[in-house]
Specification:
α1 runs antiparallel to α2 and α2 runs antiparallel to α3. The longest helix is centred in the middle third of the chain and has 26 residues. The chain is mostly helical and 121 residues long. It is flat, with a radius of gyration of 21 Å. Helix content is 82%, strand content 0%.
Length: 121
């Protein structure tokens, strides 16, 4: 019973942390929240009995990927880009490309869900 309560509590904290990754305005804070989420997911793996996956997640993702994100964010100086007023000249191109990619993904989902079979020649 106590393990189940701990699992749901840590899962709730993980979901909160992942929302903070998305909604955080400062990119450095976003990366720190991402590291927090990775650590919580590693704890969830340990609770479930997959200690190897938890330790690999800490070593690979927190130790390498998240630190790399942190260095990239710190070197890019994003605050200059945030202060500039965004232009809308590329909006039509982005919407058209996004619509084409969305249609392709939707058609692929129809093939997978529909179970369509192609005839062999």
């Amino acid at each position: 019973m106590l393990i189940a309560i701990c699992f749901y509590l840590i899962a709730f904290i993980t979901v909160f942390g992942s929302c903070m990754v998305v909604f955080s305005r400062n990119p450095v804070h976003s990366v720190l929240w991402l590291i927090f989420v990775f650590l919580n997911v590693a704890v969830l793996f340990v609770i479930l009995g997959a200690e190897f996956l938890g330790m690999i997640l800490i070593i690979v993702y927190v130790g390498a990927v998240a630190v790399l994100f942190m260095f990239v964010v710190m070197m890019l100086n994003i605050t200059d880009q945030i202060t500039k007023k965004p232009t809308r000249k590329g909006l039509i191109n982005n919407i058209s490309v996004g619509s084409i990619v969305g249609a392709i993904i939707f058609l692929e989902l129809l093939v997978v869900i529909g179970g369509w079979k192609y005839k062999a020649n």
